[in-house]
Structures are given as structure tokens and as C-alpha cells.
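This entry is passed on directly below:
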Amino acid sequence: MAIGVDWEGRRQVLAVDLANRESRSSWKDFLLALKGRGLHGVEFVVSDDHPGLKAAIREVLPEAAWQRCYVHFLRNALDYVPRRVKDDCLRELRWMYDQRDLAEVRRDLAAWLGKWQAKYPKLCSWVEDNLEETLTYYRLPLAHHKHMKSTNMLERLNQEIKRRTHVVRIFPNAASCPRLVRALAVETDENWLGAIRYPIWIISRNTRS
């Protein structure tokens, strides 16, 4: 699934499709189909760190800046610390995304690394290697940061889809599932027509990571 915001600030469900697996080729076909239907002028893309999707975005939308969802990034950080962290390490990492500009983030990062390097060396090394991918949204005006740094916009839609599909439990055939999901997408799209508008274009997508 992909959702977007057009140049008039309207949120839209751009496409819903069914694939056997998440791969570069399946995401490439998905994005090419969007372009075939007239998608153009994409400037900013937000997704998780799925390698197949990233490769497809680079190939099909090379002109767009890519933002790694910071929420997924913080979840991934849990893999590099003990199961139960009782100090402020991860909370302080989260606070970096509330800063107003990139210079503040870099100062906070240096201080954070100095504080936690000895205790969590694997986490600190991973953050240094990957944090930059989550800071692309700082290229945008401050007013857009809240919406453009994560896939939360799509996450809310995904939660509603999961709620509605879990009621069905077992679908009678392969066509019935996307039919229900597309109906929910149309319903959401119609509700967005009268909702608050955003000022710039974005594609946002979320998957398990």
C-alpha cells in the first residue's frame, strides 16, 4: 500500500496491491504501476528499512529524497541492547527527533555517544552507521517535520485494516482479501477529502521490520 499528499495538500490512498512476498521486483512493479497511472513529481519518500523496497525506490524514483521511518529505527535499536533497559539511553535517543535543526541533533548525538559508548558499544556503533538515514526530513521546513519523519500516517490506516480483517479471520479466496482492503482504502480516501490538508507531497509506506 502507498499513500501520498498531492501538491494541494490532500492525503490520498495511491494504491493497494497483493504480492506473494516483499521483494525488490514486487515493489518495483508496484511503483512502476503507480507511475504508469500518472504518478510524477515525487520529492520525498518515507518507508521502513526493507532492502527490497529501498532498492525499488532508488530505481523507480531516483529523484526523490528517502527518509527512514524514525519510529521503526527506534524499534530496531532494541536489538542492540539488553531486553530490559532501565536507564535513559533509548529515551535520550528518541529526544533527538524533537530538535529544531540538524546542528542541534549532531550536538546531541555527540553527547549521547560520549555518555553511552562504554555501556552499549554495539548500539552506539549501529546508531552512528544508520542514524543519518532518519534525518532526511531536516531538509524540509520545520512545519513539515512532524508528518514527514515517520510512517505513522500509514500505520494508523494499517491498524484499521488489521482490525477489520481480523473479524473475517479466514477469507474464502485470494480475491476477497484485497477487495475488502480496497473498500477500506476508498472509505479512508473519501474521509480525507474533508480533512486537514498538508502542504507538500509525500509517499509513505510501512511494513514489518
